[in-house]
Amino acid sequence: MKGSYTYFFTFLLACYPQVSTAIDESDSLALLVETLDAADDPGVQSALLRGMLRGLEGRRNISAPKGWSELSAKLAQSDDKSVRDLSAQLSQIFGDRKAVQRALATLKDKSAATNARRKVLRSLLTQQNEEVFTLLESLLDDSALQLDAIRGYAMVEDATAPTVLLRRYKQLSPELRRAVVETLATRKRYAQAMLTAVKQKIVSHDEIPAHVARSLHNILGDRFVEVFGEVRQLAEDRTKSMTKYKRMITPKAIASANASRGRVVFKNTCAACHLLYGEGGKIGPDLTGSNRANLDYILLNSVDPSYDVPVGYKMITISTVDGRVINGVIAEEDGVRVVLKTVEQPRMIIAKEDIETRTISSKSMMPDGQLDKMKRQEVLDLIRYLRTTEQVEMAK
Questions:
Q1: pLDDT band at residue 84 under the 50/70/90 scheme
Q2: Structurally, how many domains does the chain consist of?
Q3: Reported pTM
Q4: Residues 40-58: tens digit of each pLDDT
């Protein structure tokens, strides 16, 4: 063994990849392999393997470090399932053809555990494995993997994707329809097909969330506005809007509103980005402890969410070298990758070598004028729910 200091330093390299930017990556990986080879405790091996996977998350075309072939063969014989699985995932990232074939076999095996199949699908998509892209259409018929397959079409441009997805659109659940809409807003060719689908009433205006409309507008410009209508970029008259809603949201109106129905409205409009009572997304602030009893606070953040955006919640738009457009807020960044929190995924990793441009906006990820899209009763029910002090049953 190399001594406790070397072991600790190696563990840091695994868990915190930014440390390794100070030294050559191949050397740091070789050091990890050496340390793993000397470790006998499965718990230690698992921790190091997980750290390596996290450090290489979102990366591809990584050469196997010196000694990995022999070590992976040894770890494949471990009595610990976690060690075997983690080692196999790393071999896949390092381009081991046998590991890739085993992953593909797991993906195709409908009797395999759903979590295992989803994990290998996501890994193969990240590695841009050519064979997995040919399987996506068939996976759309697999209920366990439908959502991941739909989102998989965003990873690499496929000329057939809009036709494949829109042909099935009417038969999909609301959740899967939303995934289709979000996927088709990631590339110009896809966005053009989406616009045609809106014209043909395959996709209705109401099925395009505000954040997707804004993305489509950015990609297609005036062509999108001609079909969809104007996409509000700013609260044109904040005071006027707030006055309008204050007149609507009287104590009497709120007293007759229904918090359980409001929870449904929240789920459909706010929960993609915000947590409330432990449920929802983590892109925007957790609303549970916010000043929700204050109507002015609620209205200002609904009418004009970009009025005062904390640095950590400013929207960033990344365009990749292969034409993908991604909007989100930065969760992490180091020398080799950017990790975004997006509406579609709570953790989206983009290798810096894949980034063509990145733009930081002064705007919030939350679009302006959210309340304007709602019916009067929906607004009242939502406000009633937002002002609750404990969770309520969701209306059926």
A1: very high
A2: 4
A3: 0.70
A4: 899 999 988 988 888 888 7
Q: Which domain holds residue 255?
A: 239-305+368-386
Residue 144 belongs to a domain: no
Query: Pairing relation of β-strands 314-320 and 355-364?
Result: antiparallel
Q: What pLDDT, on the 0 to 100 scale, is given for residue 235?
A: 46
CATH of residue 380's domain is 1.10.760
Mind listing the pLDDT tens digit for each residue in 234-253?
445 677 788 888 899 998 99
Q: Do residues 376 and 255 share a domain?
A: yes
Residue 320 counted as domain residue: yes
Asked if 297 and 379 sit in the same domain, the reply is yes
